[in-house]
Amino acid sequence: MPARMTSESATFDRLDRQILHGLQLAPRVPFARLGAVLGVSEQTAARRYQRMRTLGIARVFGAVDHARLPGAATWMVRLTCRPGTAMPTAEALARRPDTSWVMVGAGGAELTTSIAAVAGQQGLLHHLPRAANVLSVSAHQILHRFAGRGEADWIAGDDRLDDNQRRELITPTEEVTINTDMSQEDQPLINALAHDGRASFAALADATGWTQRRAASRLNALTAAGFLRFDVDTSATALGFHAVAHLWFTVAPADLASVGARLADHQQLAWAAAVTGSANIVAVALSTDAAALYDYLTTEVAAIPEVRNCETVPVLTRVKQAVSLVDNGILRGPLA
Predict the structure, then answer these.
(1) Domain 235-316 belongs to what architecture?
(2) With 0-12 CB in 10 A as exposed, 13-18 as middle and 19+ as buried, what is 162?
(3) Which string of DSSP letters, residue by residue, matches 267-305?
(4) What number of CA atoms fall less than 13 Å from residue 59's CA on the CB side?
(5) 36-58 pLDDT, tens per residue?
(6) Using CA of residue 249, residue 255, residue 256, residue 260, what is the dihedral sign?
(7) Chain segment 159-188, per-residue pLDDT in tens
(8) CATH of 66-142+321-331, one of 3.40.190.10, 3.30.300.90, 3.30.70.920, 1.20.1250.20
């Protein structure tokens, strides 16, 4: 488990934000290259990242992109639980590999999670309504993501890498069509990358029992085929965002794309997507405090006349990020 942070150890500066932005753009980029782009040494870039990872502030991970799997879909699910059962339910959901972003809303009764489901299979979406501690279930399929493949935009703020730095960091690669499928044999590789998305080929070989050449070849093939993605998990609390809320927007279907495009430019949103249901856009807003959230709602959101309604659901506790379990606001990695 990561070390507990102190006010001294948790300092987070411009270079840290730029390192995280660089890793969001190129999660497995060598630290020598990242350091060169940022004007620091390889050792400094590596040391800064390892410090943030140890403290549970941020960590690179690899994960299956369920949207690319045949018949798969991702759902945002809102649960209302019996009094006193929301946290135990959230913790149980967080330990499942098919969930992410498990959060308990203010009041301790509502729980929101993201679930990966496959058509024709009786998975979690089928069983949740039958759970004794669940009073109601509202499931919303994610149709289109407007913002939030990575979280660096709100992490980095005004310290984001400029266009020249992005070009130096990201090497254009020739698009190739990879004919491959995922199999059960890939699971040890996926598990290892969930724990450390920057794991070396030697470490991946140890985790899988493969040769380094085979581990590298399989990682590259799954990534090129779109089955495997890399990103950065971050602790919003550790970065100073103490007012987190789900925003459920209702707009006319004709305005869905334009409103989504405007929301994608809002730095306060870590994630936004079009979903099924009467509230057809959901977003996650991060603010330093309640006053900042109020300012955002009454200025930038209020400036979008096509928004007919906005339900604001404050998050009391975040139990899981994309793959990382969260303990008192600190990332402690995925399940063993």
Answers:
(1) 2-Layer Sandwich (3.30)
(2) exposed
(3) TTEEEEEEESSSS-EEEEEEESSHHHHHHHIIIIITT-T
(4) 25
(5) 999 999 999 999 999 999 999 99
(6) negative
(7) 888 889 989 988 765 555 566 788 899 999
(8) 3.30.70.920
